[in-house]
Amino acid sequence: MIMNTKQETGNFYHTVFFWLKNPDNEEENLFFKTSLKKFIQHSKYIQTKHIGTPASSNRTVIDCSYTYNLVLSFRNKEDQDKYQVEEVHKQFIEECKDLWEEVVVYDSENIL
Fold first, then answer.
1. pTM score of the predicted model
2. Which tens digits make up the pLDDT trace of 67-102?
3. Is the separation of the CB atoms in 110 and 11 below 8 Å?
4. What pLDDT, on the 0 to 100 scale, is given for residue 4?
5. 12-20 and 68-74: which strand pairing?
6. Minimal CB count within 10 Å: which of 20, 39, 60, 100?
7. Are 93 and 26 in contact (CB under 8 A)?
8. pLDDT band at 10 (very low <50, low <70, confident <90, very high)
9. b vs e for 79-103, b when ≥16 Cβ sit within 10 Å of the residue's Cβ?
10. Is residue 53 within a helix (H) or strand (E), and if so which, with residue range?
């Protein structure tokens, strides 16, 4: 699911992978997705948004072990820093932290 809030894409990318404790639990999945969508739709700093699940790719270099991933772009690192302490972001973490087993984050800055 791709959701754009603005035409520009930003220069700072925040990629998050979530491994849920109970990935087959429909009720927990629905709660997680609802909370995630609510939070990213109300952030003041996110430029573009992507919520995904593992693709049906079958190559040895691809890790499909996660449950969900989130890719966000920001105008710059300063906006991403503000997003980290935004109330909607903190609320999402508080609501969902007991649902995940692991979270891995990759941040990158655009060099093009």
1. 0.88
2. 999 999 999 999 999 999 999 999 999 999 999 999
3. yes
4. 45
5. antiparallel
6. 60
7. no
8. confident
9. bbeebeebebbeebeebbeebbeee
10. none
- Model pLDDT for residues 16-49, shown as the tens digit of each residue: 999 999 999 999 999 999 999 999 999 999 999 9
E-only strand ranges, the chain: 2-4, 12-20, 46-52, 68-74, 100-109
Contact 18, 92 (CB under 8 A): no
Domain boundaries in the chain?
A: 2-109
In this structure, the strands spanning 100-109 and 68-74 are unpaired
Please state which CATH class domain 2-109 belongs to: alpha beta
